[in-house]
Amino acid sequence: MGELRTRKRGKSWEYSFEGARIKGKRKSISKAGFRTKAEALAAGTKAKAEYDQAGIIFKTSEMSLSDYLDFWLDGNVKTNMTYNTYDAYASAVKLHIKPVLGNYKLSALSPASIQQWVDSLKVKGLSEQSIANYRGVLSGALKYAVYPCQFLRQNPCSYTRVPSVPVTQDQREHREYVCSSEAWSDIVDYFNGTCYYLPLMICYHTGMRIGECFGLDLQRDVDFRRHTISVNRQLQKEDKQWIYKNPKYDSFRKLKIGPTLEALLKSEITVMKMNRLRYGEYYTRTYVDNSLHLHCVPANQDVPPDYREVWPLTKENGEMLTTESIKYCTRIIKHKLGYTAFHPHSLRHTHGTILAENGASPKTIMERLGHKNIKVTMERYVYNTEKMQDEAVALFEAAIK
């Protein structure tokens, strides 16, 4: 390729260099408008380096892990994963990977250096799951460096392991918390009559993820004739704005619902229609645009013609409830009702466990919860409860008599 050149054009400076020939003809790559020759030279040097590497702004033999991780996050992760996943990965890279390994050359990373970093996370007091998650982020990044990028011949993370970290009783109880009938009764009694009652009931009766519950459109997703509720999207927050995304793992599904939840949904839709009339121009309506961003505006405000109205879970005045609403419920349940091990996914865990305790097949539970495989369902959401233990003993006793 040709050498980088700079020249003055009027009052500004321009850089240029010769690119690849197209149909035998030379193609010049240039950019003008720089105030000084130094600025033009610096920008041109960076542009030519990127061009020579076919869009990569570093030489693969010399790149640091830090630069590669930025390349991976801004390219593969941001393009192919949800905003929340990108945010979690970026946080893991910034807080746990770069400070220890970022200065090393990508090509110099060895299983020994990575294992040393993994072991250091245990020394810091991180849980086994957290260590596995951070190692998983690095492994995913390096796997991408092997294929399709071919920056590495093999993934050094493949030869490392996550150390065993003892789990305290409190940690285990929190992770595996399933609402007892007494706890659920207390929760229902406290929130009955509030706007938080219906989302809690939906999560308990369907096992939906929190984002899926608050992503419901009550006008389109509930089919009373077929007694189903459809999971078509999840609600997420990106750059302080609410947006609809596909369900996790693209797990679109129709869930059968029973008479209890169906009656609540019918009642809620009727009440919403009445509130629209009662509040009139002061009612808040929710619309989704073509980019799937949500807009909450007063009922008397005009909106662009490409906006489509949706009926999400709302407060009495139409104000949309969001995934942040469940945080308020969680604080009440933990600190006021005294169920300190409760967490936002407890209702999802509870739903799966109740189904397992009462004989539902693992495949049915998997499809209902929207998991990728049976292993996730059995390991994370269907716990070996006391009822299951009692049934196991009864089966054994019956077998030996």
UniProtKB/TrEMBL annotation:
InterPro entries (UniProt xref): CB, DNA_brk_join_enz, Integrase-like_cat_sf, Integrase_catalytic, Integrase_recombinase_N, Integrase_SAM-like_N, Tyrosine_recombinase_XerCD
PROSITE patterns the record matches: CB, TYR_RECOMBINASE
Keyword presence, Magnesium: no
All residue ranges annotated as the Core-binding (CB) domain in the record: 59-146
Keywords in alphabetical order: DNA integration, DNA recombination, DNA-binding
Top-level taxon: Bacteria
The Tyr recombinase domain, residue ranges: 174-394
Pfam families cross-referenced by the UniProt entry: Phage_int_SAM_3, Phage_integrase
Family, per entry: Belongs to the 'phage' integrase family.
Function per UniProt: Site-specific tyrosine recombinase, which acts by catalyzing the cutting and rejoining of the recombining DNA molecules.
This protein's name: Site-specific integrase
Protein species of origin: Blautia intestinalis
